[in-house]
Write a structure and sequence with these properties.
six-stranded mixed beta sheet; single chain; alpha/beta; elongated; 706 residues
Amino acid sequence: MADLAAIDAEIALASAWARRAGWALLRFHDPGRGLFWRDTTDPEELGATSTNRAFQALTDLLLLLLEERREGTAQLTRGGAAARDEELLAEVARVLRGVARAYATTTLPDGDGPGQPAFRESGVNQLNMFTDSHLLAALALLDALPADLDGLDAEEHERLREWGAGIAARREQELLTARGGHLGPEEQTHDFITFAVLRGLDAFPHRPPEPYLAGQSEGAVEPDRPTEAQLAGRSALADRVEVDVLRQLAYYEAGITFRFDPAELAFSLALLDRLGVQNSGLLRARALHVLERTQSADGAWPSSRVVSATRRLLYVASYEVALTLTIVARGWIEEGAEDPDRLLGILGRAFTLVRQTHTTVGALEGWASDRARVSTLLESWATAVVLSFLTRYRELLLAHRNVEVLRRYRSTPPSSPPVLRWSDAGPLVRARSRRSRDPFLLPADPTGDGSLSRAVAARYVAPAEASWIDRPRHVTLALAGPPDGAKAALVRALSDRLAWPLLVLTPADFLVPGGLDMVEARAAEVFDDLARLRRVVVLLDDCEVLFQAPDALRTPPPRRAGALLASGMLSRLRELRDRRWIVLVLPVDQDPDLLDPRVRRPGRFDEVLTVGHPDLPAQRRYVGDVLGDTETAQVLVEALELVRDEVVRRDAEIDRGSRPEADRRRVSFDLLSVVLEEWSRPGPGDRPASARLLADEVWRLLEETE
């Protein structure tokens, strides 16, 4: 079992170093020109790639700061950690707005679109695929930033989209023609460039390229149908990358060290899944073993072949390898595809390398490539790469911690997880998906007008989807109603719509054998685990007895159950609510007024919703969702109308006192499920021949289940 406390400590350390790297990178910004200068050798040399990468890295840091921000921190006294974070957040936002303004307000001399040559053209490498790939990624993030952070109007955004679309189309064609990325026509392809270009094309919503592997594309914009030439180019690219992985593994196994390149192996490895290469899992396992064996104790990898030999000697820094692995490793860990200990061991050593190579030069601090040997050299691009690595390493650890906590309990993934070509693409995907989401309608909404669905959507779904960090605003929900399965269906639908896993806790997770001390210790352990989770729906199934007032129970609960409320459970619920990272749902089969008064106090649950039996319009919708527009569905709907008439008649008799209260019946979703399962099977069977006979059968089942 993973040591969660050790993971917590590593997350905190990575967060602290990310803040330090952020402050360092900000010092490279030239506010007068809106760009970043390249390195300490010449403060007048502004860097195109450096600026685009710094914009991405600072956006990563902005996400981190927003995620770790607690309510009310802006009012804290200066000098504290929270106040320092607010200062950093304000500075990052200011610089991002400055770069965004520079992107939007300058124009190329040839009319190619907004943006000055410095955003695209390297002083040494001129126009090239690598710089353009990072420009596309920066423009995509700029398009996804909340309006109060970028400071641009709709017209400026549209001009930037048009400009980026032209760049993306040209670079996509060049990538497919050359079967990879390169710095210029005279240069060899290198998957360091290929990886960057593919990520830039995937990020920028120009015309989402048909996925290089089978699957759904992100966002609301449907990709154009690829031409035969495009399909052939994509297939050729995938074949070439697979061959390169096999070639590198062969060099390593044969001991041909002068031809083996661990950095290139890492970048080609990161492309396997993206390109839909068959047997990528087997190749990945072996490649990770090789990368682990060739990494030095200090976290670096041996020098690789140069990316460019004709313009400027450009070697791949170990930080680039580590950053790439963090991007793809998160998906592997969440899917359970790879041993997390191996991955985290590799990246933990890279984190050690980052801490050991941090350098101070005069009033500046930061990083230079680990291939450099100049003690006075600091590079903004290297500092940006380190910052991006640190933020993604932290995200990887958070994902690993989520997986480890979920394994301790009963949990299920959402039925429709988000489609991410890259594990760090969440903000981009959410920004695009918000533009065209279908109305939220629960399949088991008992209200014919969908009012329950609208209430859940407004309070729990919409705020999370509107949040740039996918964070809910309201996180605790009590559902009151009969035990007919509708409440569980609602929670499952909520999990699916948010695309979050569903974790189910029962009294057995709390009431462990032993005395009260053991119960209190177990409750503390459970709530510590819940506090570690992010973006998970938690269902307290059958836990109503733990929250009810003692005088409301028909039979006294075990003394251990009563101890839970007395052991600080309610204060821990309040803490979870304040964190706002999970949605916690408590189903209540009886009147919610029977809950312990301490549970009903303001601040415990954000909302108490009633989930009653479905009315006739809801029954019709439920039948239609399952059976569609079929003859069987029509007969069943007619039968349900007859049942409704009988319910109304009996209720009137009960109200007049001519029939006992016990004869009050309601059609539940559970009963509907039984009926649908029975009469939706193919074949004749022994089904009633008419709606009247079917209504009689439904009524018989109704009386048996009451």
